[in-house]
From TrEMBL:
The lineage of its organism: Bacteria, Bacillati, Bacillota, Bacilli, Lactobacillales. Keywords: DNA-binding, Transcription, Transcription regulation. This is LysR family transcriptional regulator. GO terms for cellular component: protein-DNA complex. Belongs to the LysR transcriptional regulatory family. It comes from Paucilactobacillus suebicus DSM 5007 = KCTC 3549. Residues 1-58 form the HTH lysR-type domain. One of its GO terms (molecular function) is DNA-binding transcription factor activity. It holds the Pfam family HTH_1. The keyword Transcription regulation applies.
Length: 298
C-alpha cells in the first residue's frame, strides 16, 4: 500500500469515475485501475462494484474511504507544518572553544549567512569541558569542541575539523630564527598553557611526558589569545593550534620535528534534531562546509 494508491482511491470515490480521477490526477486511466486492483488484493476486499453501468462504492469501500480521507488530511497538514518550520528563521545558541574563534567560526558563519541571512546566533565561548556541559544543560543548541571523555547517548559528536599544533615563541626568543625545533630544546623553560581540566591541556601534557620535558613552571590561562599575549612578551612558550599562532603579532610559529598527532574537533548536538529544523539545517551545512574547506584549517 502506498500514497498513490490511497490518493487514487480517494479521487475515484469523490468523482465517481476512474477516468475522471485519472484526468484530475494527470495520470493514465490504466495506471489508476491497476493501482486499485493491487490495493483491493492487498486488502482482500472489493472496494468498488463494477457490475453496474455506474461505478458504486461498496460498504467496505466507504468505510475505508473514511480512514483514507482522515489519514491523507493529517499527512498533508503535517507536510505543511514541516515546510513552515523548515523555512522559519532560526535563533541558535552556538558554543565553541577559544582557539577557533578568530578564524574558523567567523569564516563559516559568514558563509552560512550567505545562504540563510535571517538566521540568528548567540555565540558562547568556553573550554571544551564547559561546552559539553552547556550542551547537556541546554544552554547551547550545538557546540564545537573536543570529544568528551564519556559519551552521552543523547548527543552526537561528529568530527568536522582537525588541528595541527605548533610551538609559539616570541620573535625575541632565542629559537625564533629557526623554522623547526625539537621539544627537548624547550626543556626547563616556562610553559604557558590551558587549565588542567582542558582537553587541549591533556593533549599537551601527553606530548611533554612522551618526550620527558619538564617546564620550569606552568602558567594557566582560559583563553589562547591571552596565552599568545604573554608569549609575545617572551615570558614563556606555548603549544597551540597552528591557525591561531600564525596570525598573532610578535609570535613565531615553529614546527616540531617530533611526529605528533593532530587533534580532532567535533560538532556536538542532540541526537534528535527533527523537532528543530533550524538546528538540523545548521548541522548539515556545517558538515558540508567542513568537508569542502577541511584543508584550510588543518
Amino acid at each position: 500500500m502506498n500514497l498513490n494508491q490511497l490518493r487514487y482511491f480517494k479521487s475515484i470515490v469523490e468523482t465517481g469515475s476512474f477516468q475522471r480521477a485519472a484526468n484530475i490526477l494527470k495520470v493514465s486511466q490504466p495506471s489508476v485501475s491497476n493501482a486499485i486492483i493491487k490495493l483491493e488484493a492487498e486488502l482482500n476486499t472489493q472496494l468498488f462494484d463494477r457490475t453496474n453501468r455506474d461505478l458504486q462504492v461498496t460498504p467496505q469501500g466507504m468505510d475505508f474511504y473514511y480512514y483514507v480521507n482522515e489519514s491523507l488530511a493529517t499527512l498533508d497538514s503535517g507536510a505543511k507544518q514541516i515546510h513552515v518550520h523548515s523555512t522559519k528563521n532560526t535563533k541558535l545558541n552556538l558554543g565553541f572553544f577559544f582557539s577557533i574563534g578568530s578564524q574558523f567560526i567567523p569564516q563559516m558563519i559568514s558563509e552560512y549567512w550567505k545562504h540563510y541571512p535571517d538566521d540568528q546566533f548567540k555565540f558562547i565561548q568556553k573550554s571544551s569541558y564547559n561546552l559539553q556541559n552547556a550542551l547537556i544543560n541546554r544552554d547551547c543548541d550545538a557546540v564545537v569542541c573536543s570529544l568528551p571523555a564519556k559519551q552521552n547517548p543523547h548527543y552526537i559528536y561528529t568530527p568536522i575539523l582537525r588541528q595541527n599544533f605548533v610551538v609559539a615563541v616570541s620573535t625575541q626568543h632565542r629559537l625564533a630564527r629557526r623554522h623547526r625545533i625539537s621539544l627537548n630544546e624547550l626543556d626547563g623553560e616556562t610553559l604557558l598553557t590551558f587549565p588542567l581540566q582542558s582537553i587541549a591541556r591533556q593533549y599537551i601534557n601527553n606530548l611533554l611526558i612522551a618526550e620527558h620535558i619538564s617546564p620550569k613552571q606552568t602558567i594557566d590561562f582560559e583563553e589562547d589569545r591571552t596565552i599568545l599575549g604573554f608569549v609575545a612578551k617572551n615570558i614563556g612558550y606555548a603549544i597551540l593550534p597552528k591557525t591561531e599562532v600564525t596570525t598573532f603579532p610578535g609570535i613565531k610559529a615553529l614546527t616540531l620535528s617530533e611526529i605528533i598527532p593532530f587533534q580532532n574537533i567535533y560538532l556536538g548536538y542532540p541526537n534528535e534534531t527533527d523537532h528543530n529544523p533550524g538546528l538540523r539545517r545548521f548541522v548539515e551545512f556545517t558538515k558540508q562546509y567542513c568537508q569542502k574547506h577541511y584543508d584550510e584549517f588543518s
